[in-house]
Amino acid sequence: MRFLLQRTAFYLFTAWAAITLNFFIPRLVPGDPVQALISRNQGRISADAIQSLRVLFGLDSHENTWQQYLDYWGQLLHGDLGLSFTFFPTPVSTVIGDSLPWTVGLVGITTIISFLLGTALGVGAGWRRGSWVDGLLPATTFLSSIPYFWLGLVAIAVFTGPGSFFPSSGGYEAGLVPAFDGYFIPSAIRHSVLPAATILVSSMSGWILSMRNMMVTVSSEDYITVAHAKGLSERRVALSYAARNALLPNVSGFALSLGFIVGGTLLVEIVFSYPGLGYQLFQAVGYKDYPLMQGIFLIITISVLVANLLADVAYLLLDPRTRKS
User: Which residues are in the ABC transmembrane type-1 domain (predicted)?
Assistant: First the structure.
């Protein structure tokens, strides 16, 4: 219990530091977001309206940075992320709420599937060295070194085109309204196949490599020899002794992967013009959209911290030595 309280206090401090940086970093980006908004409206905004926009967006020159920082915390505590410059006057929470399901549905599912498949294949490759699974090692090494977005570009060049089943961009067919019906869901699935396959192939290869190497290391430990000497079955030794201990380093990596679900595949979403948070972040940076950038960074920060806290809890369950300490 004391361990969990210490870790929770550490993560709360980290969250404060991250939110503080989240406030200051976008304001260091060159350019004036209000002027960018005026330019998109062809300059048809009065001087009073410009000043009102600056006050509305928390950029009032009459307020010092410290006051803006306190106002920002006050908005966060009330659940207000502000208004988006890019989609003005839509609130940032609405923009994030519309984009988050796309990213979680695509990256979240593929991350979990790649971890499970990669871990299982890594256990088999490490425990039965020289088998056909272990023979896939050169291919997995090559695939794990390829960036997601490059595989995405290759997939678009090879599998899309006139008459192809796979679309090259978007999250669903133009003209459809997002809904749980027989028209929208098949279209959304078809548009997600190539991005999901791109992420799955690259990330699964990394899990295979890391788990295989850990299984090779663990297999030479004394407790594995003792387990064999006790007459335990090969399956039980492999899963209950070797795989359980080899899995521990991968838990942290998996937690970080879950934490970066909302923003870790920015380039993939850009390549496929997929309507997720990564693509929205790309647009927000281009339009100097402080509130939207801050909102997305906040979601990423919270996701990473929560995922790491869950990893600490998983360590307590998997490793008895952690509970004793």
Answer: 100-311
